[in-house]
User: Fold this.
Amino acid sequence: SITNTEKLNTNPILPSSNVFNTHTIPTPPLSNVSTANGNSTPPFANIYNTNINPTSSPSYGYNTNSNLPPTTTYPMSQNLSPSNVYNPLSTSQPSIRPMYPSPSSAYRPQVSQQSSQFISSTTNQTAQPPLPSRPPPPTLSSTYPYPQYNYNSNTTTAATAHSGQSPPMPYGMGGSIVGATNQQNNNLNGPLTNNDMVDLLKEKTVVNPYAEEPPMSPLLSEENQQMNCSPEVMRCSLNIMPQTKDILNKSRLPLGILIHPFKDLESLSVIQGTKIVRCDSCKSYINPFITFLDNTRWRCSICSRVNDLPQEFLFDPITKTYGDPSRRPEVRFGTVEYTATADYMARPPQPAMYLFLLDVSHNAIQTGYLSSFCDILLENLNGLPGDARTKIGFLTYDSRIHYYDLSDRHNGTFRIMIVSDLDNKPEDFLPMPDGLMVTLCECRSIVEIFLNELPKIYQNNNETDSALGSALQIAGKLLDQTGGRITVIQTRIPNINPGALNEFINTGGQITKEPITIVPTSDFYKKLSLDFASVQIACDLFLLNSHYIDLATLSGIAKYSGGEIKYYPGYHSIQKPHEVERFENDFRRYLQRKIGFEAVMRLRSPPALTIHTFHGNGFVRSVDLLVLPNINPDAAFGMQVN
Assistant:
C-alpha cells in the first residue's frame, strides 16, 4: 500500500495572535456596577486585560504513518473506487488515490493523466458511496466559554464546563496532529470550502454574508483554550507568527490583529478589590504567559523584566487559601475584567448624557422616519444605560435651530425656542442655562409627552434647508463640561453655513471614464470631531438620504470622536420597508446595548513588533494609545503590525 508521509507539528500550536497585551479603560454607568449582594457601588473604570502568548516558531519533524484517515479524492470518474491501491500481488483492479491529502489546482493535471490509464480496467466496478460530510464547526461561544468567579461572596461559583466539541481545524491542512482527537484529524482532510468561481464583473455581492466563520487555531487542550484570548475579543490575521521580517515579506500576507475590546461575552472573570499587578517597566498586566521565579517574583512576558509579586496575590479567592499564585484567575485566563480604582480615572464618573439631533426639514418629514424614531425611543427609555443621574435632551433643525425646555417648571408641558438668525454664532450662547438637558427619572413624563407630539409639530413643515453644522456646534456647547453621546439623524446634505457642502460632485469640468475618487471636500467636520474628542464627546450618524449627501465629508464627525455611522440609502417609510426594518432593528440595538464613557485603549507588544496603522473610529493620541470618548460592544478596531 502507499505510505503517506505527513508533516507533523511536534509542539502544541498556539495562536499567533498571542503576542499582544491590550486593555481598555471604559467608565460604565453607575447602574451597571453592583456587588455580589446586589448593593450598588460607585462606578469604577473597567479594564479589559487581553493577554496572548508570544510563541516561537514551531519545530517540524516527519513521521511515516500508514494509518491516516482516508484522504479526499477527486471526482475523476464515477466508476473509480478508492477501496484498493495498486499492488502487483493484488487480484483486484487498481484504483486511483491521490498522494496529497490537501488537493490544489497544481496537481489536477497529473491526476487526470493517471486516471486515463485505468479507466478501461475499472468500467465494470460500481462507485463507492461518498464519505460522510464533516460535522458543522462549533460556535465561538460553545468553544470558548470562560469560568466566572464571584470574589465578594463567601460561596464559590462553579466554573462553566467547557464544551465537549473539538475546535474547528484550519482548512487545507494535511496529516494528523499529535495529541488531537480522531475527529480533529478527520476534519483536517476534508475538502476545501467556499472555493466556487465568481464572476467579478457580474456579481454585485462577492462576499457571502452567510459564509462560515474563519478557522481557529488548533488548541489541543482545555488549558490552552483558557490561557488564550477568546477569538471574539482578539484575533490575528495569521495562525503562526513568522520569526523574521523576511519570512513575512515572502509570504505576502498581511500581519495585523482585529480587536473587539468591549465585546459581550457569555461569561467573564471579573476581578474586584485587589491590587492590579503590572510590570514596573512596560506596564503590561500580569497574564498567563509570565513566568513565576518563586512566590515573590515573576518575569514579564513582554519585556522580560523581573518584578516583585505582592503578598496579597498569593491568596486564592476560590479556595480561600494562600501559597500558590498560579491559581489566580489573572494567570489562568487570557481575558479578564478588572474593576479599577480611582487611580485609573482622570476625573470622577460623569452622568450619562444623551443628546439627539433630529433633521425636521421637508425632506425628512417626507421619509416618515420621525414616527419610527419616537416610537422606538419611547419603548426603550427604561433601557438606556445609566443611573439616576442620566440626562437626555433634544435639538431639531431645518434652516433654524429648535431648542426644547423639558424641565418640570411648565405645569407638565414642554416649551419650544427657535433661533432663526444663524449668522451671529448662536453656538456662543444658549437660550437658557438649564432645562435643555434634563434628568430622565425626574422629567420622564414630559419627555414622553414630547415624543408623542414631535411628529405632529412638523408634519406640515416646508423648510427644505439643513443647518447641521450649527446644530453640532450648539450640541458641543451643551456637553462640553460632562462629555456624552450625540446622536444625529440626517436626511439631506447640509447647505447652510457653517458646514455647508456642495450638493453635486465637483469634477473640475473634466469628463473622464474613470470613476471619481470621493474625498472630503471640507475639514469643518473633522476639526469639530477633534474638538469633541478633547472633551469626551462621541457623535454617531444615522444617514437616511435619498440623494447625494457627501458621506466622505460627513463621516469625519464620527471618525475622530469614536462614533459610528449607519447608512440607509433611499430610506422611505412606504417605498423601502426593508430599510425601515433595518433602521428600527439597528436603533433598538443602539439604545439597549451597554456603553462605556471616557475610554482609552493601549496595545502593548514585544520590542520586535510595532504598530504602524490603526483602523477604526477614534483619536490616536500617541503611537499606541487610542482615545475613545464612547465604547460599545459592536465597536471593532484593526491594527497593522510591523
About this structure: The CA atoms of residues 109 and 115 lie 10 Å apart. DSSP finds 13 helices and 26 strands in the chain. Residues 1-19, 24-127, 139-193 have pLDDT under 50 and may be disordered.
